[in-house]
């Protein structure tokens, strides 16, 4: 009964009920219209049905032509055409409601205003010629990221990589306890338990000391983890807390645009990002899927400015009045002599971001690699661009290795992940499964020189739907630490073979069908 009346069930029931209601309204309108016309024009019922059917198919054909010529990810075109042709006018209605996967008009306007406000803080830190001199062959990766996400390149930033949630959490607690000015936290999931309760206790103490504390979590991401009004409870403790994109009972594709970002900023000097949320499995206090392997990166210095700006932009979308970013952004302190360069970035749905920034970062690093590409990802549901990039890298002699979980958190998604093994293995890509349990890290290391770490999974949700973030590192200490951790993780993972990746005929058929519709979900 507790599950039946949980917020998760209520939201799921509301979405299904609204969907069924829309179906009923469409078919009801068609049937009523047909009956009215048949009554008015007695004796011409068959001609009326024929005419309405012809009009319906004309609408379907026009919609299919629209799909073919529309500027959208190619993999999404085929499933939408199947939906439209298979369901006729109703399919057209579904396409009209759900195909434009973009934030609401209100959200788009908020971000437009905020982007104009923050433009002065996102100016280039190095000219193009300087970037080429500093980064060498990786300069193109940096330039593409600045063009696609207005993400400046920063020096004077120390970096540290954490190979586990436990290692991250100890350093994290140390840093927030030492905060003097402000603490900002933005996460997809917060859940009551040891990890989050310890964090809240520290945040409460810092509030009493006069430190400004802000927290933002995703409403649907945290459903079932905390109550609907949990943010109000934090507000009563003196923590400025907001839910990102609160759920409303309306059938719309805007619910797909969840905030999957993971950011902590302390005093504008220290910044964290990576795969970790705040729930007990991330620090192995509980193990529903075996040992949970996750990672994070800590920045200390100039690069934190970009993370501060990204948090404040997201937080301000929930405020009625604007916020002054100046004092927060200018709190950053340069760490002179720090090795290498960093480029924190945000990614998200169109039209807020003109390109698939998260995927482009991976593609550009893979395409530039000459010796090795090392990837850790919980999901491997990739499009044609990414698959061909991996295969071409293997063809030119690059050692391409990918580690995925051995114990799945979502069985259907895991089946789709495994369905991509054969073609990659045949092309020379080595795939490993992390045998101790579930791997949630999102990392890519190219040639041991440049790397990306953040929240972006190798799947359609991260590339097309979610708000994401990460950091690209060039020649920093964290890159070396990531490369070492990758080798340690390979050592406790199992190499997959093409024969072992084959599943039964029925399983393969179901996976192939599911892969067609994967880009829509």
Explain what you see:
With 521 residues, the chain is α/β, with parallel strands linked by helices. The protein folds into 3 domains: 7-98, no CATH class; 105-134 and 152-340, Endonuclease Chain A (Endonuclease, Chain A, 2-Layer Sandwich); 357-520, Endonuclease Chain A (Endonuclease, Chain A, 2-Layer Sandwich), CATH 3.30.870. The protein is built from 19 helices and 17 strands. It starts with 6 loop residues before the first helix and ends with a helix. The mean pLDDT is 90.
Rg over alpha carbons:
25 Å
Sheet of most strands:
8 strands, mixed
- The portion of residues forming beta strands comes to 15-25%
Apparent shape: globular
Topology (elements, then pairings):
Blueprint lengths: L6 H34 L4 H25 L4 H25 L6 H14 L9 H8 L3 H11 L7 E6 L2 H13 L4 E6 L6 H15 L3 E7 L11 H7 L3 E5 L18 E4 L3 E5 L16 E3 L2 E6 L2 H13 L9 H4 L11 E7 L9 H12 L3 E5 L7 H12 L3 E7 L5 H9 L1 H6 L3 E5 L2 E3 L3 E4 L3 E5 L5 H6 L2 E7 L2 H15 L1 E3 L2 H4 L3 H13 L4
Parallel strand pairs: 2-3, 3-4, 7-13, 10-11, 11-12
Antiparallel strand pairs: 1-8, 2-5, 5-6, 6-8, 9-16, 10-14, 12-17, 14-15, 15-16
Helix pairs in contact: 1-2, 2-3, 4-10, 5-6, 6-12, 7-8, 12-13
């Amino acid at each position: 009964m507790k599950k039946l009346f949980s917020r998760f069930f209520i939201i799921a029931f509301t979405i299904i009920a609204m969907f069924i209601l829309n179906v009923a309204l469409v078919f009801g309108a068609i049937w009523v219209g047909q009956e009215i016309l048949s009554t008015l024009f007695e004796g011409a019922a068959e001609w009326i049905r024929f005419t309405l059917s012809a009009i319906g198919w004309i609408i379907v054909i026009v919609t299919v032509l629209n799909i073919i010529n529309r500027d959208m990810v190619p993999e999404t075109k085929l499933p939408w055409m199947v939906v439209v042709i298979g369901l006729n006018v109703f399919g057209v209605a579904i396409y009209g409601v759900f195909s434009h996967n973009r934030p609401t008009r209100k959200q788009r306007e908020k971000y437009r205003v905020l982007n104009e406000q923050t433009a002065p803080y996102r100016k280039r830190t190095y000219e193009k010629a300087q970037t080429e001199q500093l980064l060498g062959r990786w300069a193109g990766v940096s330039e593409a990221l600045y063009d696609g996400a207005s993400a400046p390149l920063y020096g004077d930033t120390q970096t540290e990589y954490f190979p586990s949630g436990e290692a991250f959490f100890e350093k994290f607690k140390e840093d927030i306890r030492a905060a003097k000015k402000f603490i900002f936290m933005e996460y997809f999931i917060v859940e009551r338990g040891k990890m989050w309760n310890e964090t809240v206790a520290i945040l409460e103490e810092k509030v009493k000391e006069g430190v400004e504390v802000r927290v933002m979590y995703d409403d649907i991401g945290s459903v079932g983890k905390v109550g609907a009004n949990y943010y109000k409870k934090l507000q009563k403790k003196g923590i400025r807390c907001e839910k990102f994109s609160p759920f409303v009972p309306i059938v719309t594709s805007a619910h797909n645009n969840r905030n999957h970002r993971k950011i902590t900023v302390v005093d504008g000097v220290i910044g964290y990002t990576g795969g970790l949320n705040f729930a007990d499995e991330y620090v192995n206090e509980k193990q529903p899927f075996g040992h949970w392997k996750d990672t994070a990166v800590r920045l200390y210095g100039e690069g934190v400015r970009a993370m501060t700006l990204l948090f404040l932009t997201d937080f301000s979308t929930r405020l009625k009045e604007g916020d002054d970013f100046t004092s927060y952004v200018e709190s950053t302190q340069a760490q002179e002599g720090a090795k290498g360069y960093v480029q924190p970035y945000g990614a998200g749905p169109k039209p807020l971001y003109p390109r698939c920034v998260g995927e482009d970062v991976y593609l550009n690093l893979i395409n530039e690699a000459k010796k090795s590409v090392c990837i850790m990802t919980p999901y491997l549901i990739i499009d044609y661009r990414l698959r061909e990039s991996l295969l071409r890298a293997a063809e030119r002699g690059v050692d391409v290795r990918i580690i995925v979980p051995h114990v799945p958190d979502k069985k259907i998604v895991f089946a789709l992940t495994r369905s991509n093994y054969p073609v990659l293995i045949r092309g020379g890509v080595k795939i490993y499964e992390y045998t101790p349990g579930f791997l949630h890290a999102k990392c890519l290391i190219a040639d041991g020189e440049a790397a990306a770490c953040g929240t972006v999974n190798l799947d359609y949700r991260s590339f097309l739907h979610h708000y994401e973030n990460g950091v690209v590192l060039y020649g920093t200490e964290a890159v070396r630490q990531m490369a070492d951790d990758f080798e340690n993780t390979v050592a406790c993972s199992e190499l997959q073979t093409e024969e072992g990746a084959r599943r039964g005929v029925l399983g393969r058929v179901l996976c192939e069908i599911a892969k067609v519709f994967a880009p829509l979900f």
